[in-house]
Specification:
By secondary structure, the protein is α/β, with parallel strands linked by helices. It contains seven helices and 16 strands. It has one domain: Ribonuclease Z/Hydroxyacylglutathione hydrolase-like (Metallo-beta-lactamase, Chain A, 4-Layer Sandwich), CATH 3.60.15.
């Protein structure tokens, strides 16, 4: 992955937690403002990075509602996640409107803590526009974030793979259309930054995934569903 110009984009990929999650810090190096993507694990460590870089946290972005991305009850333990983040920094949590009520209940947030967004939303991180792309399938409100030619894809698209569709709220048909009509339409040079470290590389490109990722190469939804083990 090529490094962005230091005066154009602040972008850090941090592997953290037992599920090899990637958390992203995205910001404006001139305005010294940043947002954090999927802060579920070790909030103090993430805030320390921002503080050492002299970046002010202005918001949090959530790709989807699973507890390894937001906190809550997970594998017999309770993760404070975004609840802890809000206790330490007064920011808003941006999440897709399909999942806002669940997140509010699961993590213990007030509606005033949340900004419910849709697939047409763009927010400013300092001077930098960040676009939300609704990509249902892994969960109903899964979303990706496009900023300066970089796609933070959560659990929708991985390097060489894609998100699971055998969990409550998943839809293999929705995921097919998210991959083939939304993400596949992005420029080939778009850098892919996934939600987990599940591959030898930490980043890819949309062009590379279109060529090599079998889950992006199906021309018919029926073929995709059959690959995923669903009858057609």
């Amino acid at each position: 992955m090529s490094e962005p110009s230091e005066d154009k984009l602040y972008l850090k990929q941090i592997q953290i937690g037992p599920m090899a999650n990637y958390v992203y810090l995205i910001g404006d190096p001139l305005k010294k403002e940043a947002m954090i993507v999927d802060p579920a694990w070790d909030i103090d460590a993430l805030l320390d990075i921002l503080d050492k870089d002299d970046m002010t946290l202005t918001g949090a972005l959530v790709t989807h509602y699973h507890p390894d991305h937001i906190g809550g009850d997970f594998m017999g333990q309770h993760i404070e996640g975004i609840r802890e983040l809000l206790d330490k920094r007064s920011v808003k949590i941006h999440i897709h409107k399909e999942e806002a009520p669940y997140v509010s209940s699961a993590v213990g947030l007030e509606s005033s803590d949340l900004v419910a967004v849709d697939g047409e939303t763009t927010v400013q991180v300092g001077r930098i526009p960040l676009r939300f792309i609704h990509t249902p399938g892994h969960t109903p409100g899964s979303q990706c974030f496009l900023v300066d030619g970089n796609l933070v894809s959560g659990d929708t698209l991985f390097i060489g793979s894609c998100g699971r569709v055998d969990l409550p709220g998943s839809s293999p048909e929705d995921l097919y259309y998210s991959l083939t009509t939304k993400l596949k339409a992005l420029p080939d040079e778009t850098v892919l930054l996934p939600g987990h470290n599940y591959a030898a590389d930490n980043a890819s490109t949309i062009g590379r995934e279109k060529r090599t990722n079998v889950f992006m190469r199906f021309e018919k939804v029926e073929e995709f569903l059959s690959m995923m083990g669903y009858p057609t």
